[in-house]
């Protein structure tokens, strides 16, 4: 089946630079996607966008180029609850990828166990309205209770303005809860202002809640340019996002994850050079210990804890 990309769709950056930042051995890119290829793994009929194909082979080549050891592949909404592309990538990754699937209430126990055997360790609930249709909270809670005995966690994606309404639901979930992209703060607002304060309170008062300090390219208003107008030359990019991510890394060093978000769905203005995104890590995790926790210890513990080596 032939799929036509959403008009204006930006493909990933071709020929990303080699990062200057030296990733610690065993680093995990803990948020990235595979899309299709559509002729092998068709996009879901209910999808809100049609991406470019972004195969597992491309993803694994990027992993090696950037210097990561492993990936956590997150099911994107364009595949709905059809996790075949994800599971195929996991099964052929030689234990170098784990996954976060999207499941609905009709999923069988046998399907859950098959996904677990392939390397799925979580399920994703998406509250971003442009991406996913509404699912009743009761249904989501039912799913959370089904996946909890497998040791899986829940990944949640939402926009900061919706947190007050979602707060009680998130804090009642029975599993570890991982928030995508810091809960999408509006980075024009102060890092010590009331909006981000609610997110910080949720993390402070609920030790099962984690955050990905990812997606500066998605959250930034100033863009990738450093103060001197150059991109990345002084190692300072996406400087409006850095204070939010750094604050989380320093306050909750054992509950943060980092990922590229390759192939960067739905970016409208610019496509980041993934090498420069890796360089951004040095601005938000400023000591070797914080870097090791963010990139190695935290994701390995969450996704490879049952690994027998
Ligand atoms: C991301 C962000 C986006 C898309 C999805 O599942 C998805 O379609 O997550 C977005 O458009 O903000 O994390 O990949």
In short:
The chain is an alpha/beta fold and 309 residues long. 33% of the residues lie in helices and 12% in strands. It has one domain: Metal-dependent hydrolases (TIM Barrel), CATH 3.20.20.
The CATH topology annotation reads as: TIM Barrel
Number of domains: 1
Give the N-to-C terminal Cα separation.
41 Å
CATH C-level category: Alpha Beta
| Alpha-beta content class | alpha/beta
H/E element string? EHEHEHEHEHEHEHHEHH
Descriptive report:
The protein is α/β, with parallel strands linked by helices and 309 residues long. The chain has a single domain, classed as TIM Barrel. 33% of the residues lie in helices and 12% in strands. The chain is built from ten helices and eight strands. Strands 1-2-3-4-5-6-7-8 form an eight-stranded parallel beta sheet, sandwiched between helices. Strand 3, helix 3 and strand 4 form a beta-alpha-beta unit. The longest helix has 16 residues. It is globular. The termini are far apart. The mean pLDDT is 95. The site of (1E,3Z)-4-hydroxybuta-1,3-diene-1,2,4-tricarboxylic acid (0GY) has 10 residues, from loops.
Which characteristics define this entry?
single chain, 309 residues, alpha/beta, TIM Barrel, eight-stranded parallel sheet, 10 helices, 33% helix, globular, binds (1E,3Z)-4-hydroxybuta-1,3-diene-1,2,4-tricarboxylic acid
